UniProtKB/TrEMBL annotation:
Domain YjeF N-terminal: 9-216
YjeF C-terminal domain span: 225-502
Native source species: Gracilibacillus orientalis
Name the UniProt record assigns to this protein: Bifunctional NAD(P)H-hydrate repair enzyme
NCBIfam families for the chain: yjeF_cterm, yjeF_nterm
Entry binding sites for AMP: K412, G413, R414, H415, T416, G441
Amino acid sequence: MYIVTAEEMYEIDRYAIEKGGIEGKVLMENAGSQVAQQIIQAYNTNRKLAIVVGSGNNGGDGFVIARYLAEYGYNVTVFQLVADHKIKGDAAFYKQLWLNTSDKLAHVTDSHQLKQRLVDFDMVIDAILGIGVSGAIREPIRSMIDVINHLPITKISVDIPSGLPANDGIEVDLAIQADQTYIIEAPKETVFCEDTSIYYGEWETVKIGVPQAAYFEHTSRQRWCKKNVRATFPKRNKYAHKGTNGRGLVIGGQLTMPGAIVLAARAALRSGAGLITVATVKENLPIVSSSCIEATYHLLPNLTDRLTDRDLEAFEQIDAIAVGMGVGRDESQLLSDLIEKLDKPLLIDADSLYQLKPLLETQLQHEAPIVITPHYGEMAMLTDTTVPKVKRSPFSISRQFAEKYQVYVVLKGRHTVITAPNGEQIISDQGNAGLAKGGTGDVLSGILLTMIMQHKELLPALANGCYLHGKSADYLVETDHTEMDLLATDVIEGLSQVFRTLS
């Protein structure tokens, strides 16, 4: 499933019309009929429906929806919130089709009038504003949106809640708080931004016949789901041995945080790594070794000094490295050495992200790929911005950072944004609030380490790792746990069930 900005969606529509040979009227008919079919399946006919329409294609969709619902037996009235001369083109055509079959069209000019008219309805279908919104909403539409939000009735939006921007990074003035949104063709960026996703309510997409080639040409952003995982997940050779399944190294675990490195190592092994070596301080060895007996160990005098020749020689046989889980935030030379002296794929997480920041402009020279896995606070630190801004602009901030420093970014959140150095992006939206616990990020790092070692392409590897992590939490909450009691160790144990669903 592709994810688009407003500008990309306009280009995709244009492609469908100019190269696909599909008339705009056909696309509008398809959009309205498909949304109407979803409403018919979800809501019974004894409801009294109001459809509020504005100008533009969104309003045209509303007229089509009205016609289909009326034909199916719903009691439908259309409320036009703009002057007649603003209904143009295809929308005007479908307005006339509605008038040919119904006299239930009312013109509303102010919010007080709209409130009086809507009090007798059970449901309102929002087809006022489309995806081109940015900035303040003009009156009288602004007050009308406010009226609709305060009505105690079901609210359904068409394509996007009116007033909501399609693109990330734009502050919301006022928008419909929908209970359900039927998105036309492709989700917009704001579906996956923390501050704006709440406006959509429950959502699903409806397809209207746009050629897939239009997406290949105009967007490089997609949502990752089971079919993507199955198409890209590596098959284990029946002659495989521990060496062919990846030799990973996890580095971390200060005296006060030995559990972080245990979680990462166990997750890597449970995800299918052939061999995992834990590099930590001597004092942690009894705790770590008793908790992860399948791993091997490499002792470091501390987690801040430069690597010795003995360390570098031992790490030479490693296929990929994960560092940062519980290392602490003291100034460190270790990360510099991993970047400069070891040509291995490197995943940087947690405390090492703070040690990475001073190296960004001068020392980030690494032949093998670098992956960073920040949460919102860590991304704000790396980019000298604020957490609210990162939440508002996860796509653009991740893309700018990845392109500037030529790294892979896994921006962790309810909707995890995974970005390649070329700007290509994937959304992983599996998981639940049970993952809001200490240690789950360490588990993700371990899973990602294994995926990095076992995939030929890095972006699908990271997407598959995020999918496994989130899907394990979903499975556990659906069966044996709740979002309250779920622990990071549970997520590791749940991976086996997720693998079963992929076979």
